[in-house]
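Support case: adenosine-5'-diphosphate complex. Customer-provided input:
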Amino acid sequence: MPPPRGLDIVTRIQLSVAMPIKQTPLVAQYLKVKDQVPDAILLFRLGDFYEMFFEDAEIGARELDIQLTSRSKDGVPLCGVPYHSVQPYIARLLKAGHKVAICEQTAAAESGVRGLMPRQIVRVITPGTANEELVLAAGERSFLLSLTPGAEGFALAAIEVSTGEFVVTTVRDGLNLQEEVKRLAPKEVLLPGNLANPPAWIASGDWAVSTYEPDPRAAAALKVRFGDVALPDIHQAEAAGAALLYVEGTFGGDLGHLSAPRPYRVSEFLLVDETSRRHLELVVSSDGAKQGSLLGLLDETATPMGARALSQWIVYPLIDPAAINQRLDAVEEFFEGDLGGAIPESLKLIGDLERLAGRVGCFRASPRDCQRIARALKAVSNIKSALDSTPSVAIGQIAARASSLPQVAASIEAAIGDGPPADAHDGNVIRAGFDPRVDELRFLASDARGFIARLEARERERSKIPSLKVRYNSVFGYYLEVTKTHLERVPADYERKQTLVSAERFTTPELKDLERKILSAESGLRELELQLFTKLLRDLAAYIGTIQETARAIGELDALRSLAGVARRRGYVRPILNIGARIEIRDGRHPVLEAGLKAGEFVANDLIVDPDERQLLLITGPNMAGKSTYLRQVALIVVMAQMGSFVPASEAQIGIVDRIFTRIGARDELRRGESTFMVEMRETARLLKGLTKRSLLLLDEVGRGTSTFDGLAIAWAIAEYLHDSGRAKVLFATHFHELVDLARERSRVKNLSMAVREWAGEVIFLRRVVEGAAGRSYGIQVARLAGLPDSIVARSREILANLEQGELDEAGMPRLARERKRRETAANQMNLFSTEQDRCLGELRSIDIDRLTPVEALNVLARLSALIRK
Ligand code: ADP
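Agent response - structure generated as follows:
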């Protein structure tokens, strides 16, 4: 018979802590509970503390920076945190990647249970299912993502537990799966336990990984909660069911705020892969901070919902012109109208209404949360009336989705008093006058306190002990405390309760009577307040859907208003989107770089790129001339336009783009210790796949990481390939000046260059993009600017002159373009080789092995080998 599981874990723990444990009843209870959550840190409620034991205590002490001790009774290592301030500790454990299980006492301390208190796990908090305020970042969604393999790729289901969002999709191949997972940026990925060969990148992501056992009840769980949901395929239903079961199993609360799973298609959005997102610094800048990124620039939202909407729009730009124009219409109305005024202030009062509604949905809202909801709803009402007075169609449509629910706000305000506690168990929740029973108990409790004060005064008087005090503690209740020096004055009717080193504690019949009254009034009051508060939450639960929709609509308005505000201050224009494939930008600017410069310092540039005539723009110019900035600004303008923002230009016509790929810079890979060139080639190989006329490719300095000739050759071949094998729009920046010759050979390649002026032997960067190839590469001038010694600069000039003399061959053809000749030479080599082969074969065939002597055989061998070596 196998050993019972409880014993198993004891042995394990005993081995790990290398000390004998006495199996007290408490330890036995702990081990039984711990056995249910071997992979989580167990917070075990003991009175006013959550304790961690054994290995968990060691981890907890380390992660939380608290004292590790051991229980005197049984020698068990332990550390603990006070129950009322446990939240920050849970947050730290989760952020360090642990799961946390909460085990509570299931009978109240005063319930009179003798001996061991019953205890059970009420919740397991995992990184993807946490909805605690301290764990969540206000402006970010926090997904639990479940993956299920299907017939064609993977089904994905993502639940945002704090907001109740639930989405599902299918991704066909491995590469897109990786991209979509990174785009959702989940906090936890859930895989089927029986998945053969899970992709390696999953284990190394920025998320926790958990597994689930495929469970036939998953589909039923979906149906029970949401009724019939039409999902496009069975695998999506499986993924959604698995995610739901996992959340239901760990969350331990109601999930009344969870929406039904909403399917979306990856192809509904402009795809900017993760590498490009990083290169373009869309949501974080190169140093990892939001500041300095496009999101950092555009985000002037006043609510967390607005911030989340905006960051989602940047990562999921649209491709349907009608949908984009809806957003642009609203931005324009904010842009044109004078909607400053009261709106920003009201928005700030709304706070995170979406997550507040979520906490109501799972019955975890505090009295303070309810008060915030009431305040938010009143602010919604102010915003709606401010918007009603302006003739704004698009804004009006969004505002119509928000409801201010005045009756809900009023009922919260009627029930909850001013300055409510963060925890309903602390009492003082219900407003005076709301319920006569509460008022009565409160009066009793506070009046009894007055009695205590009066009793104390009276007893002092009677006993003539000036330091006599009436005190309270939770073990002994109320008592009269007398210091040892005054003991002889204690009246005869005092009953001794407890003896301390320096004092004695007494009680009297009168005090006992008072104590009973106070305690029953106080506990009755706490109980009643909790009851009323729970009823309030239950009433509010009926409105969760409406409050959530209101919060989301407000978030959109906030995000749109933020876009309009930035656009107005920075002089952006509304882009015109069309279903063509041409992009035309007049006076385009790099939004983030421009914001860091003085007004007018940034040099604006035009762009026309078109798959049919100007498909591949080859941009030459020295380092530091501004090529890379130009490339990035084009991509940023496209992303902005398709997310529904105005753009930094004087005019922009954008043919909808389906994918943006970039190969820009390599600084960050170097930091990660990878070979620049390998990374570069790997990325280039990846982006050559799946291109269409609508794709936009930005290549900066391809081939830089290897020797000049290799690099130039690769850059040239890639450019040719992109021209010949499709019509993706390409901006190709290079300091390989030789590449300009490509335009002579390929009709849709156009040369652009960064204008520089030479003045007194120096180069001055004009930051202007002009048609035509750069006159020369100016590398030496730049080197000189950078302070290389004059002798080196002079010698470089000499060497350059020598090299340049050989740049065109005798026929006047650019050397790199000598493609046909090269092919001929290769063919000749092939011929040579094949005649030798033929002669060898001929000789071998003529041999008669049976008559060959050893010496002759050696001779034949020598002849053959000489032939091949020739
Ligand atoms: P390259 O890619 O040619 O080496 P960058 O695009 O990195 O050059 O630009 C170098 C620097 O020049 C940038 O960091 C920026 O400060 C400045 N710069 C680039 N383009 C402009 C512009 N259009 N207006 C003003 N300054 C610019």
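The pocket of adenosine-5'-diphosphate is lined by residues 593, 602-603, 621, 623-629, 767 (CB under 6 Å).

Case will auto-close in a few days if no follow-up is received.
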